[in-house]
Amino acid sequence: MKRIIGWLTNRSRMQIIAIGFFLIILIGALLLMLPIASRTGTVTPFGTTLFTATSSTCVTGLILVDTFTHWSLFGQIVILCLIQIGGLGFITFGFVISILLGRKIGLRQRGMLKESMNVLDMNGIVKLALVIIKGTIIIEGTGAVILSACFIPKMGAATGIYYGIFHSISAFCNAGFDLMGRYQPFSSLTSWY
User: Fold this and answer.
1) Helix (H, G, I), strand (E, B) or coil at 191
2) Among 47, 78, 101, 166, which residue is least crowded by beta carbons within 10 Å?
């Protein structure tokens, strides 16, 4: 483990960001390969899970299998987490975890945050990241409430709230994933209304 940490400390900030995205996509793909991630309880091929994890993390919204009909609740939550991590940026996400754990944000971490957010100056970078996180929570929360209010009458409370949360996060992060595949001919959130 010390060798890995030593190797990472000799990498540039951009290399660490690229390695981080690669690892998140790989972990996501491996989690989606678990039998618990599919509705049928079978292992999804690595190519499909890698494509889905990449699309989720890079928020492109491209899919090989329908998100609702193929993936179980576990698989959908993995996809949702990848969307959120990709939408915020994993460096920002890691920054939030560090803050929650009460750790100090050092110069190296601030530099990586600066690079990942593509800003010119490190002054106020921590404050900016906190504003982004708070704004994200407020906007996604508001979207989830509005969408849940639309979904609950047709789906019930639990499913309606889950659909509201999923679609709010997917829409805010511009991911393009939806769970409307089971509601034909409403196979897209846009045709729901």
Assistant:
1) helix
2) 101
